[in-house]
Amino acid sequence: MKKPALPLAAFIFSLVLPGLTVAATVVPNEVQLPGTQPSEVGNLESPDRCGNCHAGYNNASTAAAGNGEPQDEPWTGWAGAGMANAGRDPVFWATMAIAEQDFDGAGDLCLRCHSTGGWYGGRSTPTDGSGLATSDSNGVDCDTCHLMTNPDNSEHPGVMTSPYIANCSNDPNVPDKSCESSTDGFYGSGMLSLSADSAKLGPYLDATARHQFNRSKFHRDADFCGSCHDVSNSVVGDLAPGNGAQPGAPHVVSSQDANGGSPKLGGPVEEKAAFNNPPFAYGIVERTFSEYKSSALPTTPVSGFTNLPADLQVPGGSLERTYQAALMAGTGGNYEDGAARYFSCQSCHMRPTNSAGADKNDARIRPDLPGHDHTGGNYWLADMIKYQDSNGQLRLGGNVSTGQSAAIELGQLRALEHLQQAASLAVEGNLLKVVNLTGHKLITGYPEGRRMWLNIKWYDAADVLLREDGAYGPLFDDEGAPVMVENPAGGPDVQVESILDLHDSYTRIYEAQYAITSDWAATLLATGTPPTLALSYDRLTGEEGYTLGELAAQPDGSYHETFHFALNNFVASDNRIPPYGMRYEEARKRNVLPVPADQYGNPGTGENYNYWDQLDLDAMKPENAVAAEITLLYQGTTWEYIQFLEEANNGTNPAEEGNAFLGDEGENMLEAWINADVPVAMEVAGDRKMVPPVVMATASWINSAIAHTVGGTVSGLLGSGLVLQNNSGDDLAINSNGDFTFDTPLADGSDYDVTVLTQPANPSQLCSVSEGSGIIHGADIGEIGVTCISEVNLIFGDGFEAAK
Prior knowledge:
It is a single chain. The chain is built from 23 helices and 35 strands.
């Protein structure tokens, strides 16, 4: 039977008194969060001032000397990443437009992180962003980070006034906080505690800065990054059934507790979920930080990299790259000053560089300068910004400078590198293993419009393609007609691109899907949300697929997946790959369990999830398949999400529930998505538009029934450093004499060509290959010979030694 909506007496009474506005000029209590509040600090300087000293000094000469590239400069690294451009981000504006429609005032949740200078400067109201200044486009600016203090008050004091205390301390105004310890801070959703002092905070005692500075241990702590990278919806956290937490998670203290089970819209902040619980407890939006905190990496020192499981030590992988960068400090992986370095947000996303931190003559070149990389997997942002800037469509931050444009392009390349370091594919027999090499779920971050999947092309013995799983390209409808959309830039309609079959049983897509439950839908209807609100759209026709009223009429336990992030209160599915050592109990507490929770090893109390996924290729293969090409793909912004942002936007007319400031952002985002070229992405249908996917990793499979190995014997090797190749790939390091076998088997009839990629270096020798090439004829190859001799033994016929 249908479960009734939550009791609404107090809920409705509080709703109707203030009335509704197009954009809130007073931030609703459900949206307010603890921490330093707008206009409480006035010491934030423009990032342009920081660039006067922290940019413009590294060049080709310093790079050639190993003393820093331009992107190693703090300002240049920052300026090219998503943090610096969060106020320009077109998808942010298009998404916030829908959030403001769904809950008047919700935009303040977005603005506090996407324009920190504007938010702390008191310009975040109206909550649609129309009050921001041109200078507020710099997203998370320099001073916001370098004035951040630990909200647990364990080090430098920050400005926090009761009841806006972002920690678990005993506050008489908020006496019922749900905390494990009174010393815990609140880390998430941009609940920052900023210093009112003029000194910049950072990790060094010995800086030669021209401004005041103080050392801050917090800036090396992963909790620092967690301050923004757990994102929670405080509206859903307080008002929705279940508080937007996963089933089985700890109880959330909210206005429902204070009002007999009824959520109280407009009630005092002291009752609200955001003031009574850590951010991870309620209103799931993204949980990158909690994914990391649930893993084994916070307690794994970088110096212990070689003790990690072998499949996490993949050369070029994220953890290995972090380890190699940390070794530059000369302390075995720890910080230069001897402090222990653990695998953390900073160790991967601010890897140490060998560079000066400023342009002053007395600024020493540090072997452990934190690179202000700050990129994740956003490989397309640069091109969307450039497109909208060139067309005068950037909602904020237009006329991007030449220096920042160059920095953005460097940031795009770093984002691509992070994606290609994030995972490995390994084929052992007929099993494919997808390994997460990061410190969070694979993939992570804001889930809407992001997906990773396996593209597998199956071939027969004649190399004819039999089937393609996870195929991506131009879409066709059920009748075979192309799916076309009007190009807002003008000209002919264009055919959109996506994964061709989202529901194919052979296609493995890694993503999280959020939803609205039927009981929450009923509650929203009672508050005045229209029953005609479209929750989803048909990706082929654009027709509304389901409405809020239809969902509210469904039985208890029903839900519908939707991109309305300001209203979603339920995780319908989440099959993203957990990080190494993710503990079941910690993941349950922090609302980061896979959904369903029995995936990846189905652990229980005291046990860990697997950090890999495994597929049986033999069970998946089509008839007569003898080989397969396997590609792991990632797409940052899908057609389905872009379609939603455009279709769900009510336009610019307030009389039609539109917003004059944000009403064009869905169409502007669609235009950029259709027309902007993304050069680092795959070519699809002759171009790189519509944010095509990028390749993260590749592998190949040969049917074990017809596959044959290639190998032989090494003799005369005295030391290490020898690396062999087969067919210009499949690198194999050799450290001793004896038999060797390449990892990748080859099908019958295949060519093989074994060569020396790297000669031994310790001691120096020359190795040569005999019987190293040919064609496989129904048997393994094992007679290849590799003979190594010392260089001093090479004597030419004229009696002279060969040059060493």
